[in-house]
Design brief:
The structure is a homodimer. Chain A is α/β, with parallel strands linked by helices. Chain A folds into 2 domains: 2-116, Cobalt-precorrin-4 Transmethylase, domain 1 (3-Layer(aba) Sandwich); 119-282, Tetrapyrrole methylase, C-terminal domain (Methyltransferase, Cobalt-precorrin-4 Transmethylase, Domain 2). Helix content of chain A is 37%, strand content 18%. The first copy, chain A, has 13 helices and 12 strands. Chain A has a 5-stranded parallel beta sheet with strand order 3-2-4-1-5, with helices on both faces. In chain A, strand 10 and strand 11 (232-237) form a beta hairpin. The first copy, chain A, is globular and about 55 Å long. Chain A starts with a strand and ends with a helix.
């Protein structure tokens, strides 16, 4: 049996009782490294908080390992119980869907333990989840690669009065260009897009397109470390949020559509109210 | 402090360790009755599984109570710790947003403990969450009230190739028409919309509109008791799903948009494959 267990968003305490029970009976426990290292404050040699809680050794599985060694992991799951831990809910990312497909093809039974994900936890700011349009991803721009397909999607959502969740790029274990040229793998340090960079890129694209899908005065909500004890949520215009230091990753951004009165009331609690930047820095 | 704690989707084991910790330190514990009675197999005099797990008495709070007695609940939370338990994630429904707004206005501190909700758990069928458009609600049609504003939304999503999550109506503690006329409150028995009724209504609206937003051959995924041990997920055309008995509530329905290959592969596992209806009935 392969258990795919969502860990939620904050720390080791966000696992469910059902999830913990599953992990405790597994002979082998993997954790996906793509976002977990960060959200759970883990380092590659420091899984100890989780290991203590579970009473198990945990193997860190990066994307490469999941993609290359999936069959190995899955053959273990043929004989006995294996857990694969995922930050958030198991089906936030395509990689995990792919693992399930492979498992089912190999005849390995799969059980999923759900948990909170960014996709539903953004509801905390008061904007109703059923009033969101299509979610967009904002990739890091490079000198030569500045894809802006998110622009039409945001534009469409805004015309319909819908909110837009923007997921911000994460680059973990990217081979460096130099190392690729030399033929041996070396990795860039991990990079997580901040709300500031996201807004900068969004405004650059608006300037190029000039169709007024949004602008400096467009209302947004910035989320840092959503679901954790020190989460920070601030509502304000793009221009205002661009000035704020949201602190350590992960960040995400919501572009506000047409609001209902109860949404407005709730947003107001997160809104900038003449506070100094320092005060905002201390606000949770 | 007011703790708003998401219970997740299945049973008492779907609370997180963080949520359980919060509940255990609260002097008073409320649970919203709107969906919890059902999902957690509770009756109004049978909260015992949860009460045993928490070691606390739990007060059942129906919508009327939350709306009418919110101030009372919140003044308790001024002095000591109060928990308000919600099935799924706390921000699936507007009622809870309203409770938070009132709390903040009264100066009561609020902490939210997130959990899985239908909005993210539908990811289990393999359709990627970022490829969903606006969510729609399908209300029970009556003789005189047959609102169909969901039609344009589904149409828009399908034109864009996006999937549509349809939330199906729940009627709990509705005053009966007869009792309203007589001036004393009596309630209709609770009603939960099945996938079959939802599809019947969807097809009726399509027949009236005739704009081919969808039809009998449109691919869908039906979910019953999502996230619980006996969940049932079946992919098929509207016509096919209409023939299936999905069993006890809650049900929801996804209308499939344009799919990617990995989405197709995953959907295939849930697809009808010449099974008899009885076999499907036994499938989880």
């Amino acid at each position: 049996m392969l258990y795919i267990v969502g860990l939620g968003l904050g720390n080791e305490k966000d696992i469910t009782l059902r999830g913990l029970e599953a992990v405790k009976k597994c002979g082998k426990v993997y954790i996906e490294a793509y976002t977990s290292l960060l959200s759970f404050g883990l380092s590659s040699d420091g899984l100890s908080t989780l290991e203590q809680l579970y009473g198990k050794l945990i193997t860190l599985a990066d994307r490469e390992m999941v993609e290359e060694k999936a069959d190995e992991i899955l053959s273990e799951a043929h004989g006995f119980d294996v857990a694969f831990l995922v930050v958030g809910d198991p089906f936030g990312a395509t990689t995990h869907t792919d693992l399930v497909v492979r498992a089912k093809k190999m005849g390995v039974e799969v059980k999923v333990v759900h948990n909170a994900s960014v996709m539903n936890a953004v509801g905390v700011c008061g904007l109703q989840l059923y009033c969101y349009g299509e979610t967009v991803s904002i990739p890091f721009f490079t000198e030569t690669w500045r894809p802006d397909s998110f622009y039409e999607k945001i534009q469409r959502n805004r015309i319909l009065g819908l909110h837009t969740l923007c997921l911000l790029d994460i680059r973990v274990k990217e081979p460096s260009l130099e190392s690729l040229c030399r033929g041996r793998k070396q990795y860039e340090p991990p990079k997580y897009m901040t709300i500031n960079t996201a807004i900068e890129q969004l405004l650059e694209v608006e300037q190029n397109r000039g169709e007024s899908a949004y602008g400096e005065e467009t209302d947004c909500v910035g989320f840092a470390r959503l679901g954790s004890e020190d989460q920070k949520i601030v509502a304000g215009t793009m221009k205002q949020l661009q000035m704020i230091d949201f602190g350590t990753p992960l960040h995400c951004l919501v572009i506000v559509g047409k609001t209902h009165p109860v949404e407005d009331e709730m947003l107001d609690f997160y809104r900038l109210k003449g506070e100094s930047l320092e005060q905002i820095g201390n606000r949770q």
